[in-house]
Amino acid sequence: MERPIRVLVAKPGLDGHDRGAKVIARALRDAGMExxxxxxxxxxxxxxxxxxxxDVDCIALSILxxxxxxxxPRVVALLTAEEASDILVIGGGxxxxxxxxxxxxxxxxxxxxxxxxxxxxxxxxxxxxxx
Amino acid sequence: MDIEKRLLENxxxxxxxxxxxxxxxxxxxxxxxxxxxxxxxxxxxIGITGPPGAGKSxxxxxxxxxxxxxxxxxxxxxxxxxxxxxxxxxLGDRVRMNELSTDKGVFIRSMGARGHLxxxxxxxxSAIKVLDIYGVDYIFVETVxxxxxEVDIVKNCDTTLMVMVPGLGDxxxxxxxxxxxIGDVFAVNKSDRDGAKRTAREIDMMLDYNKxxxxxxxxxxxxxxxxxxxxxxxxAIHEHNAYMKESENFLQRxxxxxxxxxxxxxxxxxxxKILDKSAREEQLVIDSKRIAxxxxxxxxxxxxxVGNMDIV
Lengths: 131, 312
Prior knowledge:
Number of domains of chain B: 2
Distance between the termini of chain A: 14 Å
Mean pLDDT of chain B: 89
Strand content of chain B: 5-15%
Strand order of the largest sheet of chain A: 2-1-3-4-5
Largest interface: A-B, 31 and 30 residues
Helix content of chain A: 40-55%
CATH architecture of chain A: 3-Layer(aba) Sandwich
Helix content of chain B: 40-55%
Oligomer: heterodimer
CATH topology of the largest domain in chain B: Rossmann fold
CATH superfamily of the largest domain in chain B: P-loop containing nucleotide triphosphate hydrolases
Largest sheet of chain B: 7 strands, parallel
Number of helices of chain A: 5
Strand content of chain A: 15-25%
Structural class of chain B: alpha/beta
Number of helices of chain B: 11
Low-confidence stretches of chain A: none
Radius of gyration of chain B: 21 Å
Low-confidence stretches of chain B: none
Structural class of chain A: alpha/beta
Mean pLDDT of chain A: 92
Number of strands of chain A: 5
């Protein structure tokens, strides 16, 4: 039986709106994935704890506040501490091009900036999950 | 990962992985569950059901927090609908339970219904056993938002909480058969809204009419978002549990549930055996075209398939 890919869509930090996260959640749903949606203002600890309980293949982090260089690497570090670094971590939102190399170095596998077709994200997830 | 060993050691990752494998009908996972089955049966399983938007998740969050204050551990299984077209799902119940995420004494798992009707998913019964073995004191099972006839939850829990809200319909809705019959405890949530008292009165009238008076389900007014009435509701749930245990109905219900579980598993196996073969899928499309054109009837097709399978 083909198993649905499970993705946690989370918004770390103090952003006030989640339109982008909802668009991506909906697109992943339409691609046949099970999307665990956790809503606004998540701490990295909450995100990692939820990802483990939900046994997800991928964590998709949407962030607009500018705190990406702190919060996104923190999620990866916590996953490593929990021996769950097999979970694919990707980011999206308002993230300057200059910051992307740093994020990738810290273990965020890909960063999708505004204007990326949702199909690109879907294909990336399908091609890069560990299981 | 040695799931078997780690699950008995109260390991969250092992529990999470085992639930996924069972959802995907993994045979090795089933072997683990078979081996550890006798470790289950200790948790108090509470079903939470009601229409979409009634506040089931918010109420579950508040009940779980109250139990945590009393030092109890809690598992939560929250089911949301799966798209019948893509197989995808948005599982959004955690949005109401974020503060519980990092609580070491709480395990929350979201499940897609994956085509199963009745308000829960095919693997929900197994997921309940996994959390039971993992070792929580209480398990809340929150169904998809239900309409009138999704009553499968009652076959999987010790106590069923029916969450209602004001303004969904008149008293004729309350006396219809189906979901209104399965509540052991009723909550009227959002009871600060207009019409809440009337809704409670209508449920009360329906319940007073029931002939089996040994347990008269209480109707509790709550405002989950404000944490109002939650303690009283939890007390009512415990009273039902005490009544069930004193009257031996507790064991009777578990026996009935086990019987239902066996029947469900038989149905699933037969369905899978007949339908999950790709060659049959192609034939099914061909047959369906013929039925649509009225070249043949569906009954003859079924007799052909089931007859060939040698299972009846």
